[in-house]
Design brief:
Elements lengths: L2 H6 L3 H25 L1 H18 L1 H4 L31 H37 L1 H16 L2 H12 L3 H27 L3 H8 L4 H9 L4 H25 L10 H8 L7 H28 L6 H8 L13 H5 L1
């Protein structure tokens, strides 16, 4: 390798220095988000903590969640079992921790599947229009005519109980919401001049939707995915409580509440701690979703929207200089 070729290759130090402004930009936006929405930042920290607890459940849980101890049946909280034990002596704290893993996995999987399918469906409806859009909207209206819990219960009972069935049932209830919101975005984006220019240049509908319409749907997609996590957690807990969710003995928060009411007099700790876990988790994700919605609103924070969608990365124009010249 000669000296000319060696001088062209960037050094690792230079690459690190070049990437640092992006890291500083992300850190600056996160700090601004926390300062502008302290409640949402607190909800995000609580949500991250709950996710960490769910991932580290085998390391954090004091006991096995399915191990019964018949010498300590229905014991109240004490120094040996901080959250008490259930009717067969299983540690409630361990079951709450492992229940977070199951409930969050179901919620994340269902929201990701349902919102993604609904968003892609909404992009196609908004851009293509015509009879396809008309028929799709009628199907979405039929899905939205049923309450979320009733629809999820009917689907779960029809396809059978179990983890995949619960994920699919909850995901179907999220499809029409994502489809409606993303369709409205696609309807406005397809009238933009750059979309018309791409259409006039002979680009196919698939290429236009992929390269020009989908990037503008990133911000509403993030808002939808975050705000629907709390709803998915509540639906999963309700399905488990009604007996059409994930079957026992898999620990979930809904199953724990269902087990608590089987006793003649339910013990207070068997109801309090799973219910508190559901309440705190749903509240944390709802607060985080509200903050992300406000931050990604282009009227409130266009800088973050440009950071997420990748648009408008050019710096501001200097005084007395046109914007096109400054961008070049």
């Amino acid at each position: 390798m000669n000296d000319a070729q060696a001088s062209v290759q960037p050094s690792p130090l230079g690459a690190t220095v070049q990437a640092s402004p992006a890291h500083r930009s992300v850190a600056r936006e996160l700090f601004a988000f926390a300062r502008r929405n302290p409640l949402s930042a607190a909800g995000g920290l609580v949500a991250l903590f709950i996710v960490f607890v769910a991932l580290a459940a085998p390391l954090i849980a004091p006991r096995e969640p399915l191990k019964a101890d018949f010498r300590r049946m229905s014991k109240p909280p004490d120094a040996q079992s901080f959250f008490g034990t259930d009717q067969v002596g299983r540690d409630t704290l361990s079951r709450v921790i492992y229940g977070a893993r199951t409930s969050l996995f179901v919620a994340f999987s269902a929201v990701l599947l349902g919102t993604t399918v609904g968003s892609l469906w909404g992009v196609a409806c908004g851009y293509l229009g015509g009879r396809f859009d008309l028929m799709s909207q009628r199907v979405m209206e039929i899905l939205q005519a049923f309450p979320d819990l009733i629809l999820a219960m009917a689907i779960s009972m029809a396809i059978g109980t179990g983890l995949p069935a619960v994920i699919v049932a909850i995901a179907i209830t999220r499809i029409p919401f994502g489809g409606r919101v993303i369709r409205s975005v696609a309807l406005s984006v397809r009238e933009m001049p750059y979309v018309e220019a791409a259409r006039a240049s002979g680009a196919s509908a698939t290429r236009i939707m992929t390269l020009h319409v989908l990037p503008q749907c990133v911000a509403p997609y993030l808002v939808l995915a975050t705000t629907h996590l709390g709803v998915a957690i509540v639906i999963e807990a309700a399905l488990g409580f009604l007996g059409v969710g994930i079957p026992p003995p898999t620990p979930t928060w809904g199953n724990m509440l269902a087990d608590a009411i089987t006793a003649l007099i339910p013990q207070w700790w068997l109801v309090l701690f799973p219910g508190a876990a559901i309440t705190v988790t749903v509240l944390a994700f709802n607060l985080l979703g509200d903050g992300i919605r406000d931050t990604l609103d282009p009227k409130l924070s266009p800088a973050v929207l440009r950071l997420v969608t990748g648009a408008g990365r050019s710096g501001p124009a200097r005084a007395g200089q046109p914007r096109e010249v400054a961008a070049s």
